[in-house]
Design brief:
about 210 residues, alpha+beta, 8 strands, elongated
């Protein structure tokens, strides 16, 4: 069981790295092919939103963590502060228990958004504080780090759907796969509601709007 989880973790990490590289390459190609006067970072709704909040649910796949050998269902929340058009500082928590195991994680990340057509890829790295209890032994407090990637898609208004894969280092190794929703708050002006309309139509010249 442990060997299979470790193999799956390595496979998912490779997929995350490959996925991020492909997103970066696609974004670079899209930006250089035809829309030279249009800032790629303003092509999606809420690109100027200073804050975002959200929640997510998922599963933790642990490996080489003393006392934690079973897959656990987790959930949590996050908030972000925009540092630049494509960069966010994020912080949040993930918690859950099951199979006589407990897991609590507080994390801080630096995230890059990568717009590609009507989707937005995300790549992030950060630090973790993990408080956990295994099936054997007492509770432990460990500091570690993580890297990951995912994808976001706009739903309506300020609401987005987001899927993530987060590969953690220490304690042991772990893979968290989560799905949730994000609300981008405080958007206005360029990249706000008017930009959302331009982004949805997609084919008009920079700055044009098509109103249904």
């Amino acid at each position: 069981m442990v060997a299979r989880l470790f193999a799956l973790s390595r496979l998912c990490l490779r997929f995350t790295v490959l996925f991020t590289v492909l997103l970066c390459a696609s974004a670079s190609f899209a930006q250089n092919s035809g829309n030279n006067n249009e800032d790629e970072s303003t092509k999606f709704p809420g690109s100027d939103a200073p804050f975002e909040v959200g929640f997510h649910l998922g599963s933790l796949l642990p490996n080489q963590i003393t006392g934690v050998t079973e897959i656990m269902g987790l959930g949590g929340g996050r908030m972000g502060i925009r540092l630049s058009p494509q960069t966010y500082f994020e912080t949040g928590f993930i918690t859950g228990n099951g199979e006589d195991q407990q897991w609590k994680n507080v994390h801080a990340d630096l995230r890059m958004d990568i717009p590609v057509q009507t989707l937005v890829g995300v790549a992030f790295v950060g630090a973790d504080t993990v408080y956990y209890k295994g099936r054997t032994g007492g509770t432990k407090l460990i500091f570690g780090g993580h890297a990951g990637g995912g994808i976001q898609t706009h739903l309506a208004g300020s609401a987005w759907f987001r899927a993530d894969m987060k590969f953690g280092f220490s304690p042991g190794t772990s893979l968290y796969i989560g799905f949730g929703f994000v609300w981008r708050l405080g958007s206005g002006g360029a990249g706000g509601a008017d930009q959302a309309l331009t982004w949805r139509t997609g084919d008009g010249p920079a700055g044009s709007r098509i109103i249904a």
